[in-house]
Write a structure and sequence with these properties.
Blueprint: H1 13-17, H2 20-25, H3 28-49, H4 54-63, H5 71-81, H6 85-95, H7 98-103, H8 110-146, E1 151-156, E2 159-165, H9 166-191, H10 210-221, H11 235-261, E3 269-270, H12 290-303, H13 306-312, H14 323-350, E4 353-354, H15 356-363, H16 372-383, H17 385-402, H18 406-412, H19 433-448
Antiparallel strand pairs: 1-2, 3-4
Helix pairs in contact: 3-4, 3-8, 3-10, 5-6, 8-9, 8-14, 8-19, 9-11, 9-19, 11-12, 11-13, 11-14, 12-14, 13-14, 16-17, 17-18
């Protein structure tokens, strides 16, 4: 459930950079309609089974509509009762026929309705996010393949390390996304489950047909079914929050790297150009990576929802006393932020500008120092790995201090490298970079077409 909120001058980040479809799924209108749909389908099933008169089920199906519900009154009365289904029932009873009032909400409890409606929302939202993940992965796979040989410097601790390829960097992002896709599908299958177990999980008020009622209700709502109540077992919802936040965190990682690599002194990647994008109010030259910035911000907010959902798992006995309400805001927030993060990551990746010549130039900023590890490994067979490391380390210090090449510094120290043509070319020290791209792309294609 997403409680009503007032419009402010500065809208929350997700409302500015968010996704309209997810906003609709978790909107006030959709929440109320889903509650009513669960009630209508429950009545229909009970009418089929003879639990309530068929004519009452028909009346509920035709009379109980969203236009009968005054949202402002609903929320006002919810604040008094503590839960929205009691005032929902009251409005239905007041606005519909006596037959509806007599059999509406038969044998169910508030959480049955709200949890089943939530399961419907999660099924729709996570299925939609999956399409976004597939879009992002497809773009990353294309870029990884396209740039499998595009040389750049690898950075560890934000410092130059050894040569890599841009394709291998994209492959790491893609591999992470592949795992998220598997997690997302699993979390959706577990969370999209009907809840219909009554007051304390025994389904006693639903009568002898309780299990069949649950089975048929699940089928009508296109949800899975369980014979164990989950009104006090909220692990599947915490799992959804984690998957959403982890997905958003990966998008945040991508955003952070684009921000870093688009700095003028690095200038290896850049968000797409467009009039006014990332403009400054005072500095006309600025091209701020604004979409990546939004992704980072949304990912941080998504991550912070997870502890709340883990705490909500601690609700005791057969129904929570306060922990449940945490979910009403935290879960839709986490999912909406995750979806918005993926949407914006798609925009960044689909429009990314790559500057291969600047990448090569940056890789050669310190001359042959980037090949220090290779030089160490070349010396190691003759003098041992530890001594080779010490020799190359000292030579690096000398090279930097005296503005000479590492090769010259080594020779000055009395160490000679094997005379192998092209040995100091960065392309000669890429290891499995090409294979990494192949494996990641093929794995993505297999997983994404399942």
């Amino acid at each position: 459930m997403t409680p009503p909120h007032s419009t402010t001058l500065l809208q929350p980040l997700v409302e500015v950079f968010g996704d309209p479809k997810l906003a609709r799924i978790f909107s006030e209108e959709a929440v109320i309609e889903n509650w009513l749909e669960v009630e209508r389908c429950l009545a229909a099933v009970q009418g089929e089974l003879g639990v309530i008169p068929p004519e009452a089920a028909d009346a509920i199906r035709h009379e109980v509509t969203s236009d009968k519900i005054d949202a402002a009154t609903l929320w006002k009365e919810t604040a008094i009762v503590g839960y929205p289904i009691v005032p929902l029932i009251a409005q239905v009873t007041r606005t519909c026929s006596e037959e509806v009032g007599r059999y509406f909400h038969w044998g169910a409890t508030t959480q049955d309705i709200m949890d089943s409606a939530l399961a419907m929302q999660l099924a729709e939202a996570l299925a939609y996010i999956e399409t976004l993940v597939l879009r992002l992965g497809s773009s990353l796979a294309r870029l990884a393949d396209e740039h499998r040989a595009t040389l750049m410097v690898g950075r560890t601790h934000a410092q130059h390390a050894v040569p890599i390829t841009l394709g291998s960097k994209f492959a790491v992002w893609l591999s992470e996304l592949s795992r998220h896709l598997v997690r997302l599908r699993g979390a959706r299958s577990r969370a999209a489950t009907v809840q219909l177990f009554g007051a304390a999980g025994t389904a006693a008020a639903l009568g002898p047909a309780s299990r069949e009622t649950r089975l048929r209700l699940a089928k009508r709502l296109e949800l899975s079914v369980t014979d164990v109540p989950w009104q006090s077992a909220r692990d599947t919802l915490a799992e959804v929050a984690f998957v959403a936040a982890a997905l958003s965190a990966t998008c945040g990682k991508i955003g952070r790297e684009v921000i870093e690599l688009s700095r003028p002194e690095i200038a290896e990647l850049q968000e797409r150009e467009a009039t006014g994008r990332g403009a400054s109010s005072t500095m006309p030259q600025k091209r701020n990576p604004i979409t990546s910035e939004a992704i980072v911000a949304m990912s941080v907010q998504a991550i912070h929802q997870v502890p709340s959902l883990l705490f909500a798992m601690q609700g005791g006995h057969e129904r929570a006393a306060g922990e449940w309400q945490i979910e009403w805001d935290a879960l839709p927030t986490a999912i909406s932020l995750a979806g918005a993060s993926v949407v914006r990551a798609c925009e960044v990746i689909e429009g990314i500008q790559v500057f291969p010549e600047r990448m090569r130039s940056n890789a050669q900023l310190e001359g042959d120092l980037i090949m220090a590890e290779k030089m160490m490994m070349a010396l190691a067979p003759a003098i041992g790995r530890t001594r080779a490391h010490e020799a190359v380390y000292e030579a690096c210090l000398d090279a930097r201090a005296n503005g000479m090449s590492l090769t010259d510094a080594l020779e000055k120290s009395g160490f000679s490298l094997p005379a192998t043509e092209g040995m100091l070319e960065p392309e000669s020290y890429l290891g499995e970079a090409d294979e990494v791209v192949t494996v990641a792309v093929e794995a993505w294609r297999e997983i994404s077409t399942d």
